[in-house]
Amino acid sequence: MPGGARASGAQAGLRRWLGRGMDTHISLPIFAAILLVVIWVVTLRTIANQGEAAQQAARASSRELIDTYEAQLARNLGSIDQTLKVLKYSVELNGASDALRQLNRHGLLPSGLVFSVMVVDRDGIVAASNPAVRQVSVADQPFFQVHSASKADTPYVSQTTTDAANPDWHMHFSRRIGDRNGQFAGVVVVAVDPAYFTSGYERSRMGGHGALGLFGSDGMLRSLRVGDTISWGGAIPAALDDSGQLAASAWDGVRRYTSMRPLHGFALTALVGLSETEQLAGFEQRRRNYLWLAGSGSLALVLVVALVCVLSWQMTRTRRRIRRFQETYAAASEASVDAFFVMRSQFDAKGTITDFVIEATNTRAEKMSGMRKQELRGKLLCEVMPGYRANGMFDDLVKVAILGGVHEAEWQSSHPAVAQLWLHRQVVPVEGGVVAIVRDITERKLAEERIRHMAHHDDLTGLPNRSMIRDRLDQAIRQASRNGRCVAVAFIDLDGFKLVNDGLGHNAGDELLKLVGMRMGDCLRHNDMLGRFGGDEFVVILADQPDDPLSVTPVLEKIRQAVNEPILLDGQEVQVGCSMGVVMYPRDGADPNTLMMNADAAMYRAKEQGKNVFQFYAREMNASVEEKLVLLEGLRNALDCGQFSLLYQPKVDLRSGRIFGVEALIRWQHPEHGMVSPARFIALAEESGLIIPIGDWVLQTACLQARAWSDAGLPQVTMSVNVSPRQFEEKRLVERVAQALSDSGLPAHALEIEVTEGIIMRDLAQSVGKMSELKAMGVTLSIDDFGTGYSSLSALKSFPISTLKIDKSFVSDLADSADDQAIALAVISLGHRLNLRVLAEGVETEQQRRFLLENDCDEMQGYLFSRPVPAAEMQTMLLAQAQAQATLEVAA
Ligand SMILES: Nc1nc2c(ncn2[C@@H]2O[C@H](COP(=O)(O)O[C@H]3[C@@H](O)[C@H](n4cnc5c(=O)[nH]c(N)nc54)O[C@@H]3COP(=O)(O)O)[C@@H](O)[C@H]2O)c(=O)[nH]1
């Protein structure tokens, strides 16, 4: 494939591919996939952001709460420590027993509902308490042991515990009491309910699983509130900062945003934990919402896209199918020899079709309209074909557009682009208009015209033929009958045509017929008619004549003279005549058949009268025609009925006078008409085809006879048999000759076939071929009637013949006619130059014989020596000759 073609192919492929990409069912899923990615990226990103924000908020909340909780604890612990300090001061100042009373009196003791206070002496015995308790020993309590063992003046915070002095769970906050010397004097203790430290738990902020707690530097929980549950004890393993980190709480494993903050002045740390689940519940809800929205949106998108894709795919398929149909239709219509006009009806306000607008056409339509497709499109039909209303086409189109159906018509175009062309239109309805398919049928019309012409005219001369002659005669008769006039009909047969045709060949014969036809035609008036009836027969119809046969004689004479004019054919001047039989309507017949039959009979009479004349019809003429028919009928049975016989005419050597051969001549013994001459029936047999079986019979009989003479001990003579044109042209002639020879046992060299020049010249190549075949068999050939035909001398050289027979017409006047003498001499000389023997026919007189002998003619045949005689007589002659010969030889 060339590079350019490949590139344009690739471009077309790319265009097709891009075009496909534009299809909704392909582009939409791509777009939808992108949209889905965007939706999910945005959704997940939003979720991630919101999750992060929610976590940060939770962490911030946790930090905020630890701040608040620290402040609260600072206040609570400050108040407790203050109480401890006041109590310590008071005990150190007033003694253990009065200290509480004094403080209580001054309202400096906290409510016993919140705190219980206790003063423990140096022995660990509760010296005073509020509310009052039994004097029990708390020496085993850690706070006592810590303070009694250390001089540090720092507050001590115990585990959450119960003891004998206070069975409720509580925490001990304690300080050391010193005496004036600083020695250990006891301990002041504030016991606090652990719930006190988590009372700031706000459910609204901390949820049901938020944690608020306090634990010591020993890692042990002093108080922990989770929802409504308060607990203590247990260790806090991880030490976290106050940033609200997410960690699993040690006491219940729940993940919380946890913040821890050590408290100033006490070995305590505050703890705030916000449940991750609760803190992120809002976000989780939103996350689910987002996911649901994105999921359901995606699903809806996928479903919608799938639905649209299916519809689009179906529409694309439909569109493609339509496009393919349109392309196929366009390609087909482009390739079509027909022009297509797709037209839309145009209506007026009343809904009547006023015209048609051309919407689409093909290339052929361009040629037919002389306008380009672009110009045609949108044009009103009346603009393209101004005459289409006048010629009825508009009405036809309207009828189809309104009523449907198919309209077809043929018309001869007057449009300038296709003027004179014959067109065929087929109009079919379509939605909103019509489609007209227009075809150029000029060729068909011309062919039809040609066929019509051929059916009524003679191919060779172009003249009306037999059927048209009859039609025209019929017309002329009807017209004459109406007008009270006459019609003259001349049946014309050329004289001498056969000679030209046989001698110069068919082409020359055809040329002659054409020339003669033209000459005759030139003699006629406009309303007369000349036709060729067949062969060399012509018919002239002279219409509208008066009832006087003499009125037509001038034109008939003119025709005769025109035909008689010499004609130059193939460089040879020939001359033909014509015999005319003339009839007049109505006197010689009332119908074409009768008139033609009578004209034919008159023509035959003209022939009999010596040819080249015209003969008006007379009733008695029909007798000869009837006679011919009777003769033909008899000829059909003659062979079967054994009515044929052969006569034999001797052929004599001019110099020795010896019979060297005989010519077989047929005779017909008719049961009613007596002996019928071959001159009368051979042509009839030839015409009817009966010559083939008759000729076969002659060949067989002659060969048998020759063989019989030979068998009878007579010297061998050559048997000459005439072969007619039809016989010679018959395919199996050579076979038939061979058959006759083999049937009779006659040697081939004893048989001679006589053919005329005319026969050979009909088809020279085939004739020479056939003659060569016969010669190859050993059969000799002679040319009969030499001099009457038109053998070309160069052709004569190629004939495989042995003898030329000078026609008897040149012999009969040999004594008186210098012309005939010249011809005879020329033939003799020619024959000799071609190494042929020359035989003169029809020698009747001694003068003729002498002339021929003196001029070196070789052989003769004629009444002078013998008429044709029956076989027995011929046998006697041959026997006599043989005996005379024998006598001579004995004498010698
Ligand atoms: N195809 C066939 N044609 C045949 C056959 N037999 C005869 N013919 C042809 O018929 C034509 C008339 O023949 P016919 O009447 O027999 O006349 C022949 C002779 O009788 C006649 N002739 C012979 N000598 C003379 C004479 O001195 N004067 C004179 N006026 N006539 C004479 O000539 C005829 C022979 O002519 P040709 O054949 O040219 O030698 C005739 O054309 C025959 O050929 C047949 O069997 N088949």
TrEMBL record:
> Which residue windows are transmembrane per the record?
26-44, 290-313
Show the Gene3D superfamilies listed in the entry. Answer: 3.30.70.270, EAL domain (3.20.20.450), PAS domain (3.30.450.20)
Q: Does the keyword Membrane apply?
A: yes
Per UniProt, residues of the GGDEF domain are 485-619
- Database matches in Pfam families: EAL (PF00563), GGDEF (PF00990), PAS_4 (PF08448)
Keyword list (alphabetical) reads: Membrane, Transmembrane, Transmembrane helix
Keyword Zinc in the entry? The reply is no
* Domain EAL, first and last residues per copy: 628-882
| Lineage: superkingdom | Bacteria
PANTHER family according to UniProt:
BIOFILM ARCHITECTURE MAINTENANCE PROTEIN MBAA, DIGUANYLATE CYCLASE DGCP
Which protein, by its recorded name, is this?
A: EAL domain-containing protein
Q: Per the UniProt entry, what species is this protein from, by scientific name? A: Massilia soli
